[in-house]
Write a structure and sequence with these properties.
Elements (H helix, E strand, L loop, with lengths): L23 H12 L8 H13 L3 E5 L2 H11 L7 E5 L7 H6 L3 E5 L9 H7 L4 E7 L8 H10 L3 E5 L7 E2 L2 E2 L6 E5 L12 E5 L2 H9 L7 H16 L1 H14 L15 H12 L1 H18 L6 E3 L10 E6 L2 H14 L5 E2 L19 H6 L3 E5 L6 H15 L2
Parallel strand pairs: 2-3, 2-4, 4-5, 5-8
Antiparallel strand pairs: 1-9, 6-7, 8-9, 10-11, 11-13, 12-13
Helix pairs in contact: 1-10, 2-10, 3-7, 8-9, 11-14, 12-14
């Protein structure tokens, strides 16, 4: 069997989807943490909080076990209460909803603009007399117009939460995302710029918000679940190229497990250890992602058959989104072609208001997101993707689109 034949085997990809960017220092940090018995408690939590506060330019940072927990903490610390409405983008990961429900508030889905993020216009269309807060998510690492949205909300006395879960290291006019508004969050969870073993962090420039956040008492993480999650990320994500066939086989053999609702907890020392190691390589991580976006732009540009969703200056370039003018049929054809070539790419988010579990939270049709999503495909920008593979991906996109 030749080297090229292996990619044709089921579920084995030359470039697997969303592989974490870990160095030897990450594995060494994991081993030291486990060997020292500092899985749940240890000094690395405070060290991570101090490093992030210095990096982001905030008085302090408060670590939690997930980005969802950090968002819940942000809402509680800014006074969002039962019955309040919280505006969020419909084009977003569904994990944005549970923290809002956890504080007894009501999610309200808003449409997005051409950049697939909230805009002042889409936010304003979703406001009501019961609106208390707006969560501005920077999808794909790409900055939303946070300054204009913040100005709109300030004029109406609304809380702004700067959700930089997908945009650690991104900035607007030299100011890091996550530090706008009343509170912000960053994440080290699944598929993020710094994809670790889990964890989210609340930050704020407002000392009063930080004091309120510290008054919220989350339970400590569990030892067993912390180790299990770390092992799962290592085996199923970091080594995904080789573990995916086994994962698929197990999924077919074993009964599906019920989804587990998240619980807000403090961060485990092991997660903080891994996150700190990823901060060490953040500059290289961002530079590599931006270089890959530049290469896609040079190789694909905007054609008759597709358009690249542009990354603004300062973007963290989590992924490169392509919109195919042929709609869903064209997008599906591109995904199939790329997977046949050994690249595990995928389509993008299905808007929340088009999912039965969340459709009641929308005000109106939200036409921009509904129109855009069927034609979208996300191309990988991880540093683990070689530039040679970026060029091959671009060639496969052109072949699939018939140009």
């Amino acid at each position: 069997m030749g080297a090229g034949d292996i990619i044709r085997l089921p579920y084995v990809y030359r470039v697997p989807l969303c592989r974490p960017f870990w160095s030897g220092r990450t594995y060494a940090a994991l081993a030291r943490c486990i060997g020292a018995g500092r899985v749940v408690y240890g000094p690395d939590i405070a060290r991570l909080e101090a490093r992030l506060a210095a990096f982001l330019g905030t008085p302090a940072a408060i670590a939690c076990n997930s980005g969802r927990a950090a968002l819940e903490l942000a809402l509680r610390a800014t006074g969002v209460d039962a019955g309040d409405e919280v505006v969020v983008p419909t084009f977003c990961c569904a994990s944005i909803i549970p923290p809002i429900l956890a504080v007894g508030a009501v999610p309200v889905l808003a449409d997005v603009g051409a950049g697939l993020t909230l805009t002042p216009e889409t936010v304003e269309a979703a406001l009501s007399s019961r609106t208390r807060a707006v969560v501005v998510a920077h999808l794909f690492g790409n900055p939303a117009p946070i300054e204009a949205i913040e100005a709109l909300c300030r004029a109406r006395g609304l809380v702004v939460v700067d959700d930089a879960a997908q945009a650690l290291g991104a900035e607007v006019e030299g100011r890091r995302l996550g530090t706008f508004g009343d509170a912000g969050i960053v994440s080290f969870g699944n598929g993020k710029v710094c994809f670790g073993t889990g964890g989210g962090v609340l930050v704020s420039r407002e000392r009063a918000v930080l004091e309120q956040a510290r008054a919220v008492r989350f339970a400590p993480p569990a030892f067993a679940s912390t180790l299990t999650r770390a092992a799962g990320v290592t085996v199923w994500r970091r080594w995904r190229r080789w573990s995916l066939p086994l994962q698929v086989a197990l999924r077919r053999m074993l009964p599906a497990e019920a989804a587990t609702a998240y619980a807000g907890r403090s961060m485990a020392n092991l997660d903080a250890t891994v996150a700190s190691s990823l901060l060490d390589t953040l500059d290289a991580n961002l530079a590599a992602r931006r270089a890959r976006v530049d290469e896609y732009r040079a190789l694909l540009g905007d054609e008759v058959s597709w358009g690249l969703v542009p990354h603004a200056a300062g973007s963290a370039c989590l992924t490169q989104v392509v919109s195919f003018h042929g709609g869903e049929h064209a997008a599906l054809a591109v995904v199939k072609t790329l997977r046949d070539h050994g690249y595990e790419v995928d389509r993008s988010y299905r808007p929340l208001h088009l999912q039965s579990a969340y459709e009641r939270h929308a005000r109106g049709a939200l036409p921009n997101a509904a129109r855009a999503w069927p034609s979208l495909v996300e191309l990988p920008c991880e540093p683990t993707v070689r530039m040679e593979d970026v060029r091959r991906i671009a060639e496969a996109v052109r072949a699939a689109a018939g140009t």
